Amino acid sequence: MWSVPYDEPRDDHDRGIPDYRGLASHIGHRLAANGPNIIAPNGRAFWKLTDADSGALAWLAFTRPNGSALARRKVWTLIPRLQVFIANWFVSVDHQLTEVRWVHTNIDIYEARETALLVPEPSADDLKRITRPEAVLTLDDIDRHKVTTVLGKGTDHALKGRR
C-alpha cells in the first residue's frame, strides 16, 4: 500500500514539504477497521454470520443502520449463485435476538469482499423461507441488491468464476 517507510516520508520536491498522505491513509484505514459497527461510506454495515454451534460460515449480510425505519430492521444476505443480496426476514429476526442461531460479526468492506467468495449456497428450504416472510417483513419488503452495487465489479466477476 505505502512503499516508503513511515519514518522516511516522501518529499514534495516542488515545495520541500513532507508528504504524509500515505501514512495518514494507512492510520485511517486501521482505525476504521478496528472501530465498532464499521459502516462503509455508502451507509452499509457488513456482517459475517457464523453458526453459533459449529462456527461454520453461514451468511454474508449487510444492514443499513442509518436508513429508514424499515431499512434499519432489514438484513440483506448474499445468495452467491444469483449474485444478489436479498432481504432475509429470518436473519433479520436473528439479528435482533439475544439468543441467536448465528453469531453476527461486524466486518469492513474488504473482508466482506473476501468472505463473499467463501459463503456457501443456501439450501433450497432457506431460499423458500426467504420468499415467504413470517415476521418483521412483508412480501413487498423483500428487495434485492446486485453484488456489483454492494461489493463492486471485482467481487461480482470473482463470484461468476466460482460457479
Automatic annotation (TrEMBL):
Top-level taxon: Bacteria
The protein's name: Uncharacterized protein
Organism from which the protein derives: Mycolicibacterium mucogenicum (Mycobacterium mucogenicum)
